[in-house]
Task: structure prediction
Amino acid sequence: MKKLGGILAKLVLIGLPIGNKEDLTARAKDALESGKYFLAEDTRSFGPFLKLLGIPTDDKNLISFHDFSTDKKFFQVERLLNSGEDVYLVSEAGSPIISDPAFPLVRHLIQKGYEIDTLPGVTAPIVALELSGLPPHPFQFHGFFPREKRDKFISQLGSGTHIIFESPHRILDALEILSSAFPEGEFCVCRELTKKFQSTYRFRGENFEKEQIRAQGEFVIVLYLKKTKSIGPIKLKKLAQDYMQKGGKKALAKVLAEILGEDAKKIYADMTRNA
Result:
């Protein structure tokens, strides 16, 4: 577990560009040049990426590491660390911990007492949040939109900003489901982040038109849901009694305002305008 001189060997996470190779940090490039052992989500694409950067691969050991890697890979990493060799972990793009296979290994090594380090870089959830113009606090990242139990997933989305990945093959289906569930939600759909044809689509759920989305490339959905006003049963019962006794649009507007979390004067104005 230790190098000569008592320096701990460690697992180092490296953030790679998500679309533009110029986004690679100087620290990350130094590690790619000097490192010997690399765990890569896809060695077939990582090797050519190193060559694109002008980094020779002859003296490097590229080890495949993905979602289906077994405990044998964990033990292989431990052996390398125990022999004093730093091990570097990369995904195809972005952070290896975000929707990629690093988490189980990182957790395993921490529990075993090994040191973890990171050379951070661009990550798609944060880039999408920056471009969205939607409130950044609080936000939640959910990974990919689920293929199953979607109703349960949607029912658990509370107020705040939600960041969701989706593939080009399922993006339109996902947006139709989400926009129908949240017609008042504010959406920003980001496509091909940091690449030449990067684009963003902003709309309210009720105004979603699938024709405006070009279903090609990688997508990040950013969805903002306003906090709904909570009303207790006692207050709601009192407002309902006032409406039953007094009647009229003003009393009804107060009831609706409490239920919908909107301004009573605005609701009343809308009601009288449309009368």
In short: The beta strands are 10-14, 37-40, 61-64, 87-90, 115-119, 139-144, 160-166, 186-191, 199-204, 219-225. The radius of gyration is 25 Å. The chain is about 40% helix and 20% strand.
